[in-house]
Design a protein that fits this description.
Helix content is 71%, strand content 0%. By secondary structure, it is mainly alpha-helical. Helix 2 packs parallel to helix 5, helix 3 runs parallel beside helix 7 and helix 7 runs antiparallel to helix 8.
Length: 143
């Protein structure tokens, strides 16, 4: 009980640990922005897309569930400063497996609501082109 209270007090002074993690990692910030752009690509935010986004944040990036709303708020507040091309540019120099992971996450979100909109397909196709990844790589098992 006392540790939880200390963690809350520290969070007030240090800021949210999930937000700090995102703010301190430009590649992670860029990936989350790209995932958020995929959520918005069809013009609406579905609950199923947000469930997938939250799961990816927690499982793939270790962002605590309690921080995800604050991370989303951070992305809304500061994400306007980074456009899609700038976000993708951060990935070009990364290894191919890391680039494939971004593409897989984007595809997961696009498919989350069981409706693949043309705008989502266009965004995913453009991202794959910019990352120099084949669509076949999205269906192959991870190495």
């Amino acid at each position: 009980m006392a540790m939880a209270l200390l963690d809350q007090i520290r969070s007030i002074f240090d800021g949210d640990p999930g937000v700090r993690k995102v703010a301190d990692d430009p590649v992670l910030s860029a990936e989350l922005l790209m995932l958020f752009r995929m959520i918005l690509a069809d013009g609406s935010v579905s609950e199923s897309e947000m469930v997938v986004f939250r799961r990816i944040c927690k499982e793939a990036f270790g962002i605590p569930e309690s921080s995800i709303d604050s991370v989303i708020e951070y992305l809304n507040d500061f994400g306007y400063e980074t456009n899609g091309s700038q976000a993708i540019a951060l990935f070009r120099d990364l290894d191919v497996e890391r680039r494939k992971l971004l593409a897989r996450h984007m595809a997961e979100i696009a498919k989350a609501d069981a409706k693949l909109a043309e705008s989502e397909v266009k965004l995913l196709r453009r991202t794959l082109d910019l990352l120099d990844i084949s669509p076949v790589d999205l269906v192959k098992p991870e190495s």
